[in-house]
Amino acid sequence: MLVFVVSFATLVCTVAARPSLNYLENQNHFAAENESEEVRSEAIKRLLEVFGMEDPPAIHGHKQAPQYMLDLYNTVADVDGVTKDPYLLEGNTVRSFFDKLRSEQVEFRFNLSTVARTEKILTAELHLFKLRPQATLTFNRHHFCQVSVYQLLDTTKTNNTQERKLLSSRLIPVHSTGWEVFTITQAVRSWMVDEGSNLGLHVVVRTLGGSPMDMKLIRFASGRNHHQSKQPMLVLFTDDGRRSTTLESTATSSLPHAPMSGPPSRSARSLDYSEEEGATMPCQRLPLYVDFEEIGWSGWIVSPRGYNAYHCKGSCPFPLGQNMRPTNHATVQSIINALKLIKGIETPCCVPDKLFSINLLYFDDDENVVLKQYNDMVAGSCGCH
């Protein structure tokens, strides 16, 4: 009978313990999930910091980037977004803004609130699409008109009696059609100093004799009545002051990489080497594809879909050959390690010895399209340092 009681007690304790064990297992599972989510959240936050953002831009639905910005991106970047030549772009940021007034008249205003006060304004351009004349013109095909762009001024301010200030003036063929570009850097710089002074721009068209021309004869596309591809646009070239390290190359023509229009297969990205293989493998550059879609950024990044950052892996054994691209310091360190002259001196490390920048074309929170260049994002080559 005693045996039965003990066995029964043991059975009761065992049964009672099972829910507790399940509870602990669930708690451990939830804790692991929370920890994983925290790590992911922190990792995304750090990656945003690399791209100079606190939060990812809000997604407002599918939008079409201006053709000018798409063409500019393709001019400065290759298929993976890597910079073709760092001197092709003035500064490291180009922003495009659409006219906020959406007026039928030749007056335009652009909201520049997304531009940081710390950014240096290099060049500002007003892009206007000239339409074909609506009325029959008596002018010959070689006739020109004078198009002038004015900055509207606040006459209520002290000592300011002018209503507008001339920014740019050009002669344009009357019968021409297409984009016309006017430099308005002076106005934008003043707006950045005093945001309240941004009253907009006014465009005036005159004959060569100075007489006003009928706007039915000389027309520019407006934000209200014409397709987005022809809307008035302000293009701003700035520099945010970020500088590259000394590893940045002046051009990427020497960057050896296979063109990659999309992410490699998951099996290729997950391919790794064991510690033993990594220890015997000589220092070399290996793929490291950053997929913006997997990160969750494909909704606001226009191009590229991802890029190959590459990474360096392998050993730097003595003696270091020139193919290891060693520095003099690494060579000396390797010798000291081999001779065991000083305790605790390790072999040199396999690290990037040349870095390249990438370009990102994306929508900001105000649906403006931005082209930004980021330094030191791609390992161009590896060496023992």
**Amino- and carboxy-terminal Cα gap:** 78 Å
Report the uncertain regions.
1-17, 250-278
Estimate what percentage of residues fall within beta strands. Answer: 25-35%
Helical/strand content category: alpha+beta
In terms of quaternary structure, the protein is single chain
Shape summary: elongated
**What is the radius of gyration?**
31 Å
Major sheet characteristics: 7 strands, antiparallel
Number of helices: 7
* Total beta strands: 15
Mind explaining what this structure looks like?
Helices cover 25% and strands 26% of the residues. Among the domains are: 93-133 and 143-239, no CATH class; 284-363 and 374-384, Cystine-knot cytokines (Cystine Knot Cytokines, subunit B, Ribbon), CATH 2.10.90. Strands 6-3-8-1-15-14-11 form a 7-stranded antiparallel β-sheet, sandwiched between helices. A 4-stranded antiparallel β-sheet has the order 2-7-4-5, with helices on one face. It has helices at 2-50, 67-76, 185-193, 266-270, 275-280, 292-295, 328-339, and strands at 93-98, 107-108, 120-130, 144-152, 164-173, 178-183, 201-206, 233-239, 284-286, 289-291, 301-303, 306-308, 311-313, 350-363, 369-384. It has 385 residues and is an alpha+beta fold. It contains 7 helices and 15 strands. The chain is elongated, with a radius of gyration of 31 Å. Mean pLDDT is 80; it is low at 1-17 and 250-278. Residues 266-385 form the TGF-beta family profile domain. InterPro entries: Cystine-knot_cytokine, TGF-b_C, TGF-b_propeptide, TGF-beta-rel, TGFb_CS. Residues 1-17 form the signal peptide. It is found in: Secreted. Residues 246-255 have a biased composition (Low complexity).
